[in-house]
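Memo to structure team: turn this sequence into structure tokens by end of day. - J.P.
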Amino acid sequence: MQNENRMHEDVERVLLSEEQLREIVSRIGAQISADYKDRGSKLILVSVLKGSVVFMADLMRAITIPCCIDFMSVSSYGSGTTSSGVVKIIKDLDTNVVEGADLLLVEDIFDSGKTLSYLKEMLSARKPASIRLCTLLDKPDRRVVDLQADYVGAVIPDAFVVGYGLDYDEKYRNLPYVGVLKPAVYGGEE
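Reply from structure team:
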């Protein structure tokens, strides 16, 4: 019980409640279903691990048309919370049938855009019918590449957020909401 309370105590404020997250997932799921219903191509949701797995699990249940899922894991090297843009593929797609399919990259948070830009370019070489980007959270203030998400759950300020799959040091992913982590927890300024 003490550790559970500690997780909540480390959160400065709730940014998106459980109810708000349900509404976001429902809205995006309906939009994706409408956009892809008459395309005739296989829709593959690609979760960029680990942070997006909670969002994608809820999102795929909100999509009312046939879809497949797959996963990629990447590592961006950099210092602290800043990516250098050098991306290493840790786990590639399991499916070999990307050509002619509609790919939807599902991310937890879209900030600098370096990783998603790299993945989009790399996957384009496999000749999918389309590649679109879906993100739960968009931090446009941190964007350094010219790339926009096609589906956005919420635009948020430049704050360190955790919960609903997002972590700090592999902790807080299981919080049922998205909250702003207290700077004292991660060594930020008060």
